[in-house]
Design a protein that fits this description.
Order of helices and strands: HHHHHH
Largest sheet: none
Number of helices: 6
Length: about 150
């Protein structure tokens, strides 16, 4: 992921450099609208998403070494949501918007559960939090891309 992100950054930098040195763009009204979301902003959000994914992966790895069983309700609920987020991300027409609501519902259900061991909450909370950030970032990036596509058509 990091290599692909670095490649995207190089492409954007090259495009910006070419844009700046293009004499036709100096006097043209085709200059970028500064209200548009820039590719740089999108790449910063993607980088942030990768950081949250790394944190989520690290949490899962470290939690797998911890003693004790996971609560079945949490494990099944979280895995189902994580799978659905992955499917939605992989689908160019997919949407992750409803997954935020599902994460909130899971969090509420787990916090209301009487039998949930308090010792597991930091792990469960971290997993919910990281996945929530990934969902928000994916939604933001998809929305920014849709806005860019719409502005090009108009």
């Amino acid at each position: 992921m990091s290599e692909e992100l670095n490649s995207a950054w190089q492409t954007v930098r090259l495009a910006r450099e070419s844009e700046r040195s293009n004499p036709r763009m100096l006097h043209s009204q085709n200059r970028r609208n500064h209200d548009e979301v820039s590719y740089e902003e999108i790449l910063h959000r993607v980088d942030e998403g990768i950081s949250h994914l790394r944190n989520l992966t690290r949490t899962l790895r470290e939690a797998s070494y911890a003693s004790g069983d996971w609560d079945e309700r949490f494990r099944e609920g979280w895995v189902e949501i994580a799978r659905d987020v992955g499917v939605a991300i992989a689908d160019p027409e997919g949407s992750v918007a409803e997954e935020l609501e599902r994460l909130t519902k899971l969090s509420t259900e787990m916090s209301d559960a009487e039998s949930l061991p308090n010792i597991e909450w930091p792990v469960y909370g971290s997993l919910i939090h990281s996945l929530r950030h990934i969902v928000i970032i994916v939604d933001d990036v998809a929305s920014a891309q849709e806005a860019r596509d719409t502005s090009k058509q108009g």
